[in-house]
Specification:
The complex is a heterodimer of chains A (about 130) and B (about 260). Chain A is mostly helical. Chain A has helices at about 1-25, 35-55, 60-70, 70-80, 85-90, 90-115, 120-125. Chain A is elongated and about 55 Å long. Chain B is mainly alpha-helical. Chain B has 13 helices and no strands. In chain B, helix 6 runs parallel beside helix 13 (about 235-250). The termini of chain B are far apart. Classes of the chains: A mainly alpha (about 130), B mainly alpha (about 260). The interface between A and B is large, with 77 and 111 residues.
Chain lengths: ~130, ~260
């Protein structure tokens, strides 16, 4: 039943967010530290286990895949409720800081990705 | 009639949002295919339309939640809110190949470090150029340039003025929107195409909202890898900005008066 998949997803989500909050508390930070990332790792682990032991039915997986497919529509809804007005009203300083930061970071990303070790390709072919 | 429609819209907010976003996506796909012959991704266009609607909503209501502040469209706040957004992001983990993620994991961590330090330095530098000299304001604006959540968290922790905190949020929000819009255009330049490149990009660009929308508009397959790294961004920023980074800035710019 697809609901089993959705319930499994919900369980990973909640546990991940909880652990992220806990990690934040331990570090003394008023923020969730990687909760979503932890939830993703949990789901990856659960899926791997489910396939290896054969308890995860394809029908159940549909309950996760549907939500993954809803990702882009949800992001569009998120875009529609950004505080665009405030972002534009921050004045030249806020705009300049943001533009320079994005320029610098994309340049560094470009530099790193252009120097992707040649070894990475053969490894991909083997595995 | 008007009140009847409004009642319908408000009571069925989430359902109405599915219908509206469905129309936006359909419209974007058709326009992207027909007018730009697929050169512009449909989802990139849809995100731009979403941002435009958010601007219109902000203009109409003066609120801070874009179109979701217009009562007819309040359901958008639920559909695009952090709960469903994170739920959908976690679901994409089903598409992750663990070996790919594991191999690029350390690279993502390095990118995450750079993605925190570099924007912070740029934010501090910009604030300095605009006349700020006290360590608290400089740190807060630098933190805001990391992500729009790190800014106010840091500012509140070290006691910045509300004017400076507002500025920090503005630069963070503007950065997130800039990442959403420019990622598809800069994808070739950044060589975005492999899981590893997506993790490097996510670590550097920061903000889940910017990265998730930027990658969605570039290549849907890369989204889970980027999200895996980007979700640590705010946590790391909140950890180092009000502590280590603040101490360094305070040492560099001791109070004059």
């Amino acid at each position: 039943m697809p609901l089993y998949g959705t319930a499994l997803l919900a369980g990973c989500h909640l546990l991940g967010i909880f652990l992220g909050e806990l990690l934040g508390r331990l570090l003394g930070v008023p923020a969730n530290v990687g909760g979503v990332g932890i939830a993703m790792l949990l789901l990856i682990a659960v899926r791997w286990h489910g396939h290896a032991r054969g308890w995860l039915a394809p029908r159940s997986e549909e309950g996760v895949k549907y939500w993954a497919a809803l990702y882009i529509p949800v992001v569009i809804a998120m875009a529609a409720q950004q505080n665009v007005l405030k972002a534009l009203s921050g004045g030249p300083m806020a705009v300049l800081a943001a533009v320079l930061a994005v320029l610098a970071c994309t340049s560094i990303a470009a530099w790193i990705n252009r120097h992707e070790p040649a070894a990475a390709a053969p490894v991909a072919e083997i595995s | 009639m008007e009140t009847l429609l409004q009642k319908l819209a408000v009571e069925n907010g989430l359902v109405l949002s599915f219908a509206i976003i469905g129309l936006v996506v359909l419209f974007s796909e058709v326009v992207a295919r027909q007018l730009t012959r697929g050169r512009v991704q449909g989802s990139a266009l849809a995100i731009l339309i979403g941002l435009t609607l958010a601007y219109v909503g902000g203009r109409l209501t003066g609120g801070n939640k874009g179109l979701a502040d217009v009562s007819y469209f309040s359901g958008l706040a639920l559909m695009g809110g952090s709960m469903l957004r994170d739920f959908a992001i976690v679901a994409t983990a089903f598409e992750v190949h663990p070996t790919e993620a594991k191999r690029a994991g350390w690279m993502g961590a390095i990118a995450l470090g750079l993605g925190t330090i570099v924007p912070f330095i740029i934010g501090v530098g910009t604030a300095y150029a605009f006349g700020y000299r006290d360590a608290i304001s400089l740190t807060t604006i630098g933190a805001g340039t990391v992500t729009y959540i790190v800014g106010p968290v840091t500012g509140t922790a070290i006691g910045a003025s509300s004017e400076v905190i507002t500025l920090a949020i503005a630069s963070g929000v503007f950065k997130a929107i800039l990442v959403m819009v420019t990622t598809p255009m800069l994808a070739k330049f950044m060589r975005l195409g492999t899981p590893r490149s997506a993790m490097v990009f996510a670590g550097l660009a920061g903000t889940v909202s910017g990265v998730s929308a930027g990658l969605a508009a570039t290549d849907r397959k890369l989204v889970p890898y980027g999200a895996l790294v980007a979700t640590f961004h705010t946590g790391v920023g909140c950890l180092v900005c009000p502590s280590i980074f603040f101490f360094v800035v305070r040492a560099l710019f001791p109070a004059h008066s």
